[in-house]
């Protein structure tokens, strides 16, 4: 939102971004992904993508700690999805 002070068209970009995010979240939930998994991935991705966009679009500096945090988010998202798939397979085998 910092950029919107000088360039109001960024408000449109932000609103469209939120709209796309919610549409994708709804589509993922309709596909059968568990709410906890979908929301966790959605929230974590938002944090990582915001930091990356700030660096790419506005020249913000990503410290080593920030890059490490983004890497941990990516690993965490992969592990959560991996665990959810394993749990889903296990439930299918019990039926």
From TrEMBL:
Q: What is its main location?
A: membrane
The record ties this protein, via Gene3D superfamilies, to:
1.10.3730.20
**Alphabetical UniProt keywords:** Antibiotic resistance, Cell membrane, Membrane, Transmembrane, Transmembrane helix, Transport
State where the protein is found: Cell membrane
The molecular function GO annotations come to: transmembrane transporter activity
Gene Ontology cellular component annotations, sorted alphabetically: plasma membrane
Annotated transmembrane regions: 12-29, 36-58, 64-84
The membrane-topology field of this record reads: Multi-pass membrane protein
* GO process terms (BP): response to antibiotic
Signal peptide interval? none
Q: Which InterPro entries match?
A: EmrE-like, Small_drug/metabolite_transptr, Small_multidrug_res
| Family according to the record | Belongs to the drug/metabolite transporter (DMT) superfamily. Small multidrug resistance (SMR) (TC 2.A.7.1) family. Mmr subfamily.
Q: Which protein are we looking at?
A: QacE family quaternary ammonium compound efflux SMR transporter
């Amino acid at each position: 939102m910092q950029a919107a002070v000088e360039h109001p068209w960024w408000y449109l970009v932000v609103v469209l971004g939120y709209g796309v995010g919610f549409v994708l979240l709804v589509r993922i939930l309709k596909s059968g992904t568990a709410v906890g998994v979908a929301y966790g991935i959605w929230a974590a991705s938002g944090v990582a993508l915001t930091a990356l966009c700030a660096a790419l679009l506005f020249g913000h500096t990503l410290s080593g700690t920030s890059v490490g945090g983004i890497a941990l988010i990516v690993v965490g998202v992969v592990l959560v999805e991996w665990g959810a798939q394993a749990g889903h397979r296990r439930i299918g085998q019990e039926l």
